[in-house]
Specification:
Helix content is 36%, strand content 23%. By secondary structure, it is α+β, with helices and mostly antiparallel strands. It has a seven-stranded mixed β-sheet with strand order 4-5-2-1-3-7-6. Helix 1 crosses helix 6 and helix 4 packs across helix 6. The longest helix is centred in the middle third of the chain and has 15 residues. The protein is globular, with a radius of gyration of 18 Å. The two termini are 29 Å apart. The N terminus is likely disordered.
Amino acid sequence: MLNFRKITSKAYEYLRLTQKDSMLQTKQLKNLPLLNLDGLKLDYDKLNAVRYSKEEIKNAYSDYMKAPYVNYFLRKSSVLSANANKQVGCLMQAINDSTPIKGTFYRGLGQCKNEETVRKYIFDNRGFTSVAPAQSKRVAETFFSENSGALIEFNLKTPIKGFQASSWETIFAPNTFTSSKFDLIKVEDKYYKIVEK
């Protein structure tokens, strides 16, 4: 069975190369009892030649910043439009081309009922994870609701690739933070820490 959570930017670039409109046709593929991919070969030279321009990445980030709907579709494993595929491909290229970073980052969640919800948003996140670096903690706090939210502190000691899109936002790839590599610690009510194992 295919694991759609492990799809990388290379797959999105391949879509662009082959001019396909949709990446995750999960409703059709999930129902197949067996999918044989033996003999499937990619021309990596052509694949690597398909690169998004800085302007395309800038526009993709601008769209993501205004309305990150693509995260909703990724989290639901929905079929992505050509435009959404391009946005994902641009962001993944920016992440993959980035210099690994470490440090303290923050993420605010507006609708977060309990610790299980925090776990879901962090460890079972098929969408991008947007965080604010420590010096921009206030940005993360704007997403945090005192009544129903949570503030999460990420302590990254091992450098990880993340697209530093602006001075107030860093974007990590889907499934960067998994329960096999990180622990969730509840510090106090509505305040959590993510630490490496």
